[in-house]
Write a structure and sequence with these properties.
Layout: E1 6-10, H1 15-28, E2 31-38, H2 46-54, E3 62-66, H3 68-81, H4 98-112, E4 116-118, H5 127-138, E5 143-145, H6 156-165, E6 181-184, E7 189-192, E8 222-229, E9 232-236, E10 239-240, H7 243-257, E11 261-267, E12 273-279, H8 281-297, H9 300-319, H10 325-337, E13 343-350, E14 353-360, H11 368-371, H12 384-403
Parallel strand pairs: 1-2, 1-4, 2-3, 4-5
Antiparallel strand pairs: 6-7, 7-12, 8-9, 8-13, 9-10, 11-12, 13-14
Helix pairs in contact: 1-6, 3-7, 4-5, 7-8, 9-10
Length: about 400
Amino acid sequence: MSDIKRVVLAYSGGLDTSVILKWLQVTYGCEVVTFTADLGQGEELAPARAKAELMGVKPEHIYIDDLREEFVRDFVFPMMRANARYEGDYLLGTSIARPLISKRLIEIARETGADAVAHGATGKGNDQVRFELSAYALEPGIKVIAPWREWDLASRTALIAWAEAHQIPVPKDKRGESPFSTDANLLHTSSEGKVLEDPWQETPDYVYSRTVNPEDAPDTPEYITIDFEKGDGVALNGEAMSPATLLAALNDLGRKHGIGRLDLVENRFVGMKSRGMYETPGGEIYARAHRGIESITLDRGAAHLKDELMPKYAELIYNGFWFSPEREMLQAAIDHSQSRVNGTVRLKLYKGNASVVGRKSADSLYSERHVTFEDDAGAYDQKDAAGFIKLNALRLRLLAQRGQ
């Protein structure tokens, strides 16, 4: 890659990416363009600009983009239409953010005439795969630089020593052993490493940052409603909201009631198991509400097929194949299923739980007349069930007769 003249770096402004910025300048002798994405992580992003300028990045080559609405509208909501949960539990908060970051990296590379993009993911994790698969899918000829797979800075001590040798400020809180690492966006916060590496040990309470302890949550339940149109949330308690605004409001409710905590040992795409703690307060409420409205608006066949497709869809996102044809094929089927997923869901929020307690829709397939235990006025002839049962039992009876 000796011919690289300009590279776009996914830059947070933290110690790791600041070291990477300088390392790129020193190692490749190239110009660096920085890109910082506002995905609702709740951090002040202005310091990232100041740090980049301090390290010689031209002002016109410092990108700080507010992507919150695009993130929820074009990535989180389509994923939620599928009710996607990796390995049955994980709402894919980190996974779903990576294709958007990669998409913008490639766009900036085109705008600035860059030869390459760079990221700060390590060689042990999933993010390197997600970033790079997305980048290659969008720009097959792009060069990708992954410093953690190239340099010889094998420890945090070495990283800090290199930073000091190159006049990179090292915050005091970065000098000690970090108890765990975190990643955050509008959908979730994930924590892993150090105090979480022993899967037998309970997650310390200080690790949680986005939810109160359910035991300390209000003793009085709170009821809310979420309105859906074509499978997407459009209003909270009757108030119309944009996708990002709705998710942010649900995050506040989830924080208050201690909803959305998950302690998970998962299978990484690169082959190892890892233990992480995830907080997805608004996402957990939203996911339960979406299944609630689907329960009365989706036909059984469509609903069950969606549930069969979901693990594959979730695995594709987790493994970094958002821009693959198979994910797009599944998305088309899922989106088609949502055309009549309209209505309102009422939820009860109480001490870590978000329970669906009511649902209504003008497109409901629920027929009280058919299911009532009272007189159904001829809506359902119970005698029909006898033939239905006999036909379904035929092969079982033949199997049993053969055995006799």
